[in-house]
Amino acid sequence: MNGPRWFPTMLLISIFQIITFYQVIFKADGTLNTAASIVFIAFTAIEWLWSVISTIKLRKSSLALEYIAFFLTGISLVVNASVGTAQLIKQFIAVVLGFAAFVILLFIVADVERAEKFRKPFAAASIVMLLVTLIFARNINGAYNWLSFGGFSIQTSELVKVTFVFVGAATLEQLQSRRSLTQYVIFAVICIGMLFLMRDLGTALIFFFTFVVLAFMRSGDVRTILFLILGAAMLAGLVVLMRSDYIMQRFATYRHVWDFSNGKGYQQTRVLTYSVSGGFLGLGIGNGHLRDVFAATEDLIFGVLCEEWGMLIAFLVADAFIFIFIHSIRCAKGARSAFYSISCCAAGGLLLFQAALNIFGVTDFLPMTGVTLPFVSRGGSSTISCWALLAFIKAADNRTWAGGKR
Hints:
The protein is mainly alpha-helical. It has a domain at about 110-250. Helix content is about 70%, strand content about 0%. The protein has a two-stranded antiparallel ribbon. Helix 1 (about 5-25) runs antiparallel to helix 2 (about 35-55) and helix 7 (about 155-175) packs parallel to helix 9. The longest helix has 25 residues, at about 340-360. The radius of gyration is 21 Å and the shape is globular.
């Protein structure tokens, strides 16, 4: 997407965002929503500046990945604007921080030797963050995975997703000894184990899936078999933990939500009912009924898209994650280092798996796990981690480095 070819794509995205933002820039009484206007202008400026700098100054030949993220992020900002100014501002701050994390991490992993130096500090920081959360987090909706301070809250497990992929790829890229493998196995077990203790089942599943992907990418020797055996052991432990009362409550209504329509199945029956009422083009942003249900813009966001934005946009959003995953596989094949191949597939697989858990959970194909829809759901920690994970996929694409040194 070099030269003038990037312009039509960015123009189409901007037109789509103008149409959607227009519906929240003006309030019901006709007055101007100043906050939404400023966010729209600032976000559009970021998109166009990155496009111009990347293609003209840095001479990057492919921006498809960023454009998918811009498309999804724009939808998230509009949804938050339709909820309230405070939510919009917090989400936009998270988008800016996430984009900064994307750029910084892209710089770090541009040099594999430099990235290797961050492996142990990142691993230590991950364990410390999860440990602090386990000790000081309050019980919110049955899980202990949020730290609150100064009016802000952070879900540390979202940030650890990035370091989990980073440490795994950096370790498996050059396995010089059994000691390095053992260290990563211990790191993975500690991270996933603490997530179980936090009762954050959805995130624990995502980490476990990422662990399996990392093991698969390092195939071809006995060490991989040991990895998979360990993975199977962790899965067995997960099944045992599922026998707890809390976990069983989360699965009690699976495939039987209509039997508990006014109780435990309240959320899911409403999302199933309201989702189909939107039809192909939706009822219009802010006109849906699902937004009045608890966690509508977080866990149930895909249902909100179906109802208010229509099946067309909802399926485009779902397809976007498939595209990201396919793109990561293609980039991994031609990557110049095992580090890029491993981290790229792990990041792409993680995003797709998390999206699948959210979408299939909302539609009752899978039990609800409470995970967010990447880039789209309201949540600053999730937004930051998703943009950071994108850097691994971007770094594996050799076109990223066209015209410059790695």
